[in-house]
Amino acid sequence: MEFLPFTRPSIDEATIAEVAEVLRSGWITTGPRARAFEAALSEHVGGRPVRTMSSATAALEIALRVAGVGPGDEVITTPLTWVATANVVLTVGAKPVFADVRADTRNIDLDRVEAAITPRTRAIIPVDLAGLPVDRGRLYEIARRHGLRVIEDAAQSMGASWAGQRIGSTGDLVVFSFHANKNMTSGEGGCLVVNNEEEARLCEKLRLQGVTRHADGGMDVDVLGGKSNLTDIAAAVGLGQLPRLDEFNARRRELARLYFEHFDKTLGFDLPLPDFQNGNWHMFQPLLPKNAAMTRGAFIEAMRAEGIGVGVHYPAMHLFTLFRAMGFAEGDFPVAEDVGRRTVTLPLFPAMRDEDVLRVCNAVSKIWK
After folding, report:
1. Catalytic site residues?
2. Last residue of a domain, one of 198, 219, 244
């Protein structure tokens, strides 16, 4: 029986041919395809300036620098996400401050965000876990009242919406990911949506060594930059993916509905919030039953024996050694810890067939019973 991974990108032959054309062109680093990709992404978010990066991690770090976050500052974020979200805060010399998540959405609890604000707080980084957006209305009301920047970690919510508005079309600084497991991909890559051309120009300098080039062939460096520009090879993949994003997300919603229809509710799993209005269903993540006799590791191994891949997204990051050394401990964020211990990511990607969902559901029932 064919192995069913928890995710797989859908890349068509036209996109593959376009990548081959880029390779033949002799211009494979940042060039005309990258500029075209940025223009297409800008159109996607209603005309706001967009700059591409080699990863969403790089885009998050640059967003912090654009926002002026640095040593001595605090940034509030969730402990339940990929560790990059907090790592970039440390990279710019600031301190990550965690706020627990809500049990229903598994996103950061905005009541706890407000309670965590201090005179040193400079920004909030919310994360749209599994593509389910954080309440943007409440988020920005808090940010405005306290004079804070918002860096939306929308790495997982490309094509999602809030209150009828596409994520990225409004708000402050918004980061998307085009990693291989995302709803659309460029292989590796990401982008940052900014507010104006001044911020866009700063992004360009920060992603390429701080360089400003002059028409006479000279150059200057007036800010410390790094190396995180997107190649034309990756941009060619992104240009092929973006027009299919709505198609991909529509199929994900169909598959998620099938999961809700066929998943055995008597097993005791906690299913995700069935939000089909806002989310893009980047992942389908039930939580294992509490106090179960079977461990998560045993469940993953048993599913693999059935030919089905299962992921874990994500352990509560404050329990990692790096963050324990900063003083964080078990019990600090109990909801995130509970979700992090019990979460499993089941297969969900556009090329899946309806019968694949039934196969997964049947395997879960067989193993758990």
Report:
1. 182
2. 244
Residues in the chain: 369
Query: Domain of 348?
Result: 245-368
Residue 4: inside a domain: no
Tokens of 74: 């605090």
- Tell me which of 221, 244, 267 is where a domain ends: 244
With contact defined as beta carbons under 8 Å apart, do 234 and 39 qualify? no
Other CB atoms within 10 Å distance of the CB of residue 367 = 17
The CA distance from 130 to 162, in Å, is: 15
3-state secondary structure 34-69: HHHHHHHHHHHCCCCCEEEECCHHHHHHHHHHHCCC
Half-sphere exposure for 205 (CA within 13 Å, toward CB): 18
What is the pTM (predicted TM-score) of this model?
Answer: 0.98
Question: Which amino acid makes up residue 118?
Answer: T
Local confidence pLDDT in tens for the 369 residues of the chain: 899 999 999 999 999 999 999 999 999 999 999 999 999 999 999 999 999 999 999 999 999 999 999 999 999 999 999 999 999 999 999 999 999 999 999 999 999 999 999 999 999 999 999 999 999 999 999 999 999 999 999 999 999 999 999 999 999 999 999 999 999 999 999 999 999 999 999 999 999 999 999 999 999 999 999 999 999 999 999 999 999 999 999 999 999 999 999 999 999 999 999 999 999 999 999 999 999 999 999 999 999 999 999 999 999 999 999 999 999 999 999 999 999 999 999 999 999 999 999 999 999 999 998
